[in-house]
Amino acid sequence: MLHSTTLHRSALVLLLGTALIAPAFAQSDSITIVVTDEPKSLDPCDTDLSNNARILRNNVTETLVNLDPANGEVVPSLATEWRQVDELTWEFKLREGVTFHDGTPFDAAAVAAALTRAGNADLACEVGLATLSGNVFTPEVVDAQTIRIKTGTVEPILPNKLSTLDIGAPSTPADAKTREPIGTGPYSLAAWNAGQNVQLVSYDGYWGDKPAIANATITWRAESAVRAAMVDTGEAQIAYEIAPQDATSANDHAFPNAETSLLRIDQSIAPLDDKRVREALNLAIDRDGLIGTIFHQDAQKAMQVVLPSVFGYNPDIAVWPYDPDKARSLLEEARAAGTAVDTEIVLYGRIGIYPNSSESMEAIQAMLLDVGFNVRLEMMETTPWLEKLIGPFPADRPPSALQTQIDNTEGDAVFTLPNRFTSGGNTSTIADPALDKLIADASAATGDERQSLFRQAFNYIAVDAINIVPLFHMVTIARVSPDLNYVPDVQAGNEIKLATMSYK
Amino acid sequence: MAPIFLLRRTTLAALALLALMTATFFLVRLTGDPVDLYLPVDASRAARDAMRAQLGLDRPVVAQFFEFFVNLLRLDFGASLWHNRPAMAVVLEALPKTLALGAIALALAFALSVVVGVIAAARPGSAVDRFINVVSQAAASVPDFWLGLMCVLVFAVNLRLLPTSGFGGPAYWVLPVVCLMARPFGMLVQIIRGSMIEALNASYVRTARAKGAMEGRVGFVHALRNALLPAVTVTGDLAAQFAGGGGVVEVVFGFPGVGKLLIDGILRRDFAIVQSSIFAVAVVIFLINILVDMLYAAIDPRVKVE
């Protein structure tokens, strides 16, 4: 038996040790936020990647306009007003009294430089390659506070597109990516400790309200359980992307993340070239059974690949019912008509595309087998999966359905449809001239006509062509420290709104 | 030490390194195209082709290999796609952290296992011996990943004694070290216990006892010295493994070492990072092997380095 003095001594040592090594807890003007991955770069032109945008957007760098998270409406940021001068020209009036973190004034020349830079093919900017691709944008400086942007083809929603163009200081190198972004935002970059964290500090010369929190650290951990634990221990105040099985605390908030999960049907290969077979795929899936079990209970059943907040969303498409008997009879009908319904169909899944991605595909495979499909599941790591996602596709490929999810944070259907559902789209498995025309017309139209055409396109994809097995509008879970005022919104997947945060 | 020994070892190591780098070059390219991963899904085919051309990935693999080989001879590993700076610079930032982590874990595992192994060997079959056996076998077989998460749960979340993860002062090293220690500790206890029991029954120990040597002296000077030899060999192998980083442990704890870097590099198809990490680690392993040989010679006078 141990003597009591030994016990006391051990306790003392333990206590001392604890005092020496206990993690530093947050102070009222500091915050630590944990995400999944280190940013790829901190270049303002790479904010099409959410890892980068989360750190930069509206913290370090700002855009001409923002989108209202509630309704997707374009709202002022560095531009105070804008108008379409003619079909190919837009004009933006810029906010006065704005300075970059290095002291240089923000003006039209800075916007022109940022736009030109993002479109520089040699730099391979994410924004230039994704959001701004497919058109030519020529900036014209009218005066210091006025910029005109000419477009190669008509661009009815240029302001939406420019909500993704983060504007760095003119001193940003024009011919190389930077790791030291200089923006106009409420925070400037204090340090990027490679492999460890990014530190931001509030910028005294900010044009807007001074944020309540002066110092922010953004760090990353691969493990969901570790991220969640960091909020419990006070090492972090917000942890994003908590897996459902780790979301066991009252401090976990689920928020829609602008992603829609689906299976993309490769409809040019038999037996999936038979519409009855594609319909059977949809009817065989028990979506209600997947919600609250494998998918989060707040996920919403989907019928199209964008959320209701996106311009062009069609509220009138009915969600597929779960009808295994009808699925079986459709398969029989197709078989009777000579379709080789017993051919093996490959279900391509991607490991970790969302929490429980493998489990969801296993469940779906079981449901498909149950109605008589011959389905083989193949779960892949990201790179081989991308080879299946992005064309051109080999002619001798097997019939397949591919697990994917599509996000739209830009608020308009044009950011989703052309690349994924037209004949020329590099991730499209549908080549239908009628749909091509619908999407092209919608993309060029404005107002009610635009909305109506996009709605028709969504209906065509889901009901007429049945190119997809829509699953759910997805949610992400964030754990937020109870002493923090912060409610993640639909943009939280792409934006950590530091300026809106404060301690209670 | 004979210079001829060093020269021979270095030549052999250089050849092995070239073979390893050749294999790495081809294997990493078999895993897929970085351009698909690097560019946004919406990027056009033209943009993809342009980037492939820019990275030289559109050329025949043989031509790419030739250029890689020439650059390798000049120790030029190219720029990391992900980090956008020289890959070797990124690796050299991460490597010392991994080496320190591995060295601490291994030194502690070795020291602890000698004490525990000797205690177990002193009374084979006793309750203490059986307890040590169970614990050491469990330690040798527990998965790093699970142990890491359990440590976070117990010591960080419940007891609030240590930070969950990250990199910083001594506190941040405790859990990664403990998790990395587990397997070598378990293995070394088993080895030391076994060789110690054997040594204690050997004729030279019996002779020493017969001549009236003190029991402690018999155990620690005569027997342990010989019993340590297999442990040193295994420790050398373990050290070589650790040079590559406890990848899983580093990932769980967000420890910015070379193991995590290598895993990230593979997942991101960052060829330059993968190639330069493997090169740096291979050089370290070569140095460790030479050190182990020298240590072996120091412990056992019958072994000569020549």
UniProtKB/TrEMBL annotation, chain A:
Chief location of this protein within or outside the cell: periplasm
Coiled coil ranges: none
Xref: Pfam families: SBP_bac_5
Keyword Signal appears in the UniProt entry: yes
Signal peptide range in chain numbering: 1-26
Compartments, as annotated in UniProt: Periplasm
InterPro entries in the record: Peptide/Ni-bd (IPR030678), SBP_5 (IPR039424), SBP_5_dom (IPR000914)
Domain Solute-binding protein family residues, every copy: 73-400
Domain of life where this protein originates: Bacteria
Keywords attached to this entry: Signal
Alphabetized Gene3D superfamilies for the sequence: Dipeptide-binding Protein, Domain 1, Dipeptide-binding Protein, Domain 3, Periplasmic binding protein-like II
Family note: Belongs to the bacterial solute-binding protein 5 family.
Identification of the protein by name: ABC transporter substrate-binding protein
The species this protein was found in: Devosia yakushimensis
Automatic annotation (TrEMBL), chain B:
Recorded coiled-coil stretches: none
ABC transmembrane type-1 domain ranges (all copies): 95-296
InterPro entries: BPD_transp_1_N, MetI-like, MetI-like_sf
One Pfam family, short name: BPD_transp_1
Subcellular location: Cell membrane
Bilayer disposition of the protein: Multi-pass membrane protein
Keyword Ribosomal protein: no
Transmembrane portions of the chain: 99-122, 134-159, 171-192, 278-299
Keyword terms: Cell membrane, Membrane, Transmembrane, Transmembrane helix, Transport
SUPFAM superfamilies named in the record: MetI-like
Family membership noted in the UniProt record: Belongs to the binding-protein-dependent transport system permease family.
Classification via PANTHER family: DIPEPTIDE TRANSPORT SYSTEM PERMEASE PROTEIN DPPB-RELATED
Protein known as: ABC transporter permease
Record organism: Devosia yakushimensis
